[in-house]
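Need tokens for this chain, all 406 residues.
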Amino acid sequence: MIVTIERVGHRGDGIAPGPGGPVFVPRTLPGEVVEGIFDGRQLRAPRIVSPSPHRVTPPCPHARTCGGCLMQHAGDGFVAGWKQGIIAQALAAQGLEAPLRPLVTSPARSRRRATLAGRRTRSGAMVGFHARGSHALVDGPRCILLHPDLMAARPALADLVAAGAARGAEIALSVTRTEGGADVAVTGGKPLDPVLAQALARIAEERRLARLTWDGEPAALRAPPVQRFGAARVLPPPGAFLQATEQGEAALLDAVREGVGGARRIADLFAGSGTFALPLAERAEIRAVEGDAAMTAALDQGWRAAGGLHRVTAETRDLFRRPLGPDELRGIEAVVIDPPRAGAEAQVAAIARSTVPVVVHASCDPASFAREARTLVRAGFALDWVQGVDQFRWSPHVELVARFSR
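Here are the structure tokens for all 406 residues:
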């Protein structure tokens, strides 16, 4: 069967018309003529008959097998335009449009956190990403996505798998770059008995891990796994959310700072460990609200230790079940909200009913953002601009910051 790719879908597959509906072809681009074996809605064993001018040689040697990056066959300009299009289409689906600023893309070798999979092998252990649509692991010793410090931690991760993974089982290793070294949180390992605990502590010391957490239990702490948020040094809990790249975090923070402008009283909702709240406290008083008590505590401790910042009140609260109401937002000059991927419908509805004049909305999902943008626009807000940020280079994911005012 021969098809012509019309567009790239939100998940990165090329989409072509076919008998009875669309045909999905991975690693293809608009305008390409592709030949393959038609199998349901997929085209198996595709062969590019006529390539797109946007097609490039993947820069990573693991690109064809690894599922960590899906768009390395496309040039940077195409990927940026495609991701801008995802944002624009999400807004259009809600009857909205806004000025889209040029996408800010993190460079290669900049990912400072990742979750890898590990399995024991006859010769030791394998650590890597899954192949696309498969449980098979792909070893990636020349990965160009991860920061060099994370790549340097691969031997330590393999040691942890060899020591603590049950035979035939897979474990997840979340690794984060910190000032003190790699911060590793493992899930799915063998029970942490005294023998395993001793082995893990030895690995952490020999491989110079900052911290090791095993299925939620502390296994080793060699150095404080510190993150810097503005002038504050914060010790996040194991596995806590952190923006994927330093460059991406800086771009998001720049947009948030611009969005709040000269506001002197700011509410930061879904504040995490203080990514936005602590830098914003250099110029304003902050009410920071986060649902995770450990992250709230880390934020509060970071503020108290920093000195020289405006007052930050850190509150643990489930904003899904108990959003801040209009009365609680009285006197707030700007709200910063950065909810999880599913969004925060109830909290945004409460903001819409309030008298807050400025909302700065960060999001990792354009579709849920667009639904909430419609709520704010219907309440009288103008959508001033949208800044896209691509921290997950060569993936279908895109993040954004948008400013609303009234």
